[in-house]
Amino acid sequence: MANKKTVVIGASDNPARYSFQAVNRLKSYGHEVVPVGIRKGQVAGLDIHVDKPEVNSVDTVTLYVGPQNQPAWYDYILDLKPKRIIFNPGTENYELERRAREQGIQTIEACTLVMLSVGNY
Asked: Which end of the chain is less crowded, N or C, counting CB atoms within 10 A of the terminal residue's CB?
């Protein structure tokens, strides 16, 4: 499996959160992971960025932020110019999906954890 640099939006240091599990699983599968969230912390030995860091050569943005909180992230996500955005369950957002597709970004409504486990990440 090729290394796909992935920005996890909504990263958390809470082991009960799916974003925590996703960062750990992505890292264990050999992907470069950039966790971004609203609270400082660490997950999988990585600092959670709270400042919307500049990241180059992004393959995937995977979302763990509900649609009601996504507008504050639109510009950041689109400016990363990822190849694709994964909308995990509960994060589906027609407006962001439309804007992404207009910029040539693939959008997928799926679960990152399932995609990794079945080998189609």
From this structure: N
